[in-house]
Amino acid sequence: MMRPSKTFLVSVSVALLLLVGYLVIPGGASTTGYGDLCFHIRVLDQHGQPVSGPFTVTIENVERRAVQATGNDGLAHISHWFAKRTDTWRRSLGPTKTTEIYHLGGKLQVSAPNYQSWERPLSMLFEGNYDARKFGTNLTCTVSLTPGQGM
């Protein structure tokens, strides 16, 4: 009976070590760029009713670039709002895990006639690092305005 050569045994051992290392040791990579999100803003008065009449919604990102929309009947939509995004994949024993993290810096502002202006940081309304792979690219927010001087 023939015994395997030392070269063969060393080659098989190295291949097994590489395979075990690939399966056990997590690896990964990430890329950074910009992607777009869609915001759906519902604006209510102090009684929980949609604000009647026009109002303005402004979303400003950390680079001070703002996108503005005019809403009516309590709803406003801002689509194609660009935010900094990091895509990451991680290898693990199971399926590859991926994330699509949007870095939500900046603020959301709402103003309407006869109401006080409203402003909050996006990181307070949504996770500061929003995972669109997990939650989707449509973000919804409800804002309650207080009567007063506005616009």
What features would you describe in this structure?
The protein has helices at residues 6-24, 122-125, 132-135, and strands spanning 27-44, 55-60, 66-71, 75-91, 97-103, 107-111, 118-121, 129-131, 138-144. With 151 residues, the protein is α+β, with helices and mostly antiparallel strands. A hairpin with a 6-residue loop joins β6 and β7 (118-121). The longest helix has 19 residues, at 6-24.
Number of strands: 9
Our count of helices gives 3
Order of helices and strands: HEEEEEEEHEHE
Distance between the termini: 93 Å
* Spatial sequence of strands, sheet with the most strands: 8-5-4-1-9
Which value, in Å, is the CA radius of gyration?
25 Å
Which of globular, elongated, flat, extended, rod-shaped describes the shape? rod-shaped
Quick rundown:
Helix content is 18%, strand content 48%. The protein is α+β, with helices and mostly antiparallel strands and 151 residues long.
What descriptive keywords fit this protein?
single chain; alpha+beta; 4-stranded antiparallel beta sheet; 5-stranded mixed beta sheet; rod-shaped; 151 residues
Task: Describe the secondary structure blueprint for this structure.
Layout: H1 6-24, E1 27-44, E2 55-60, E3 66-71, E4 75-91, E5 97-103, E6 107-111, E7 118-121, H2 122-125, E8 129-131, H3 132-135, E9 138-144
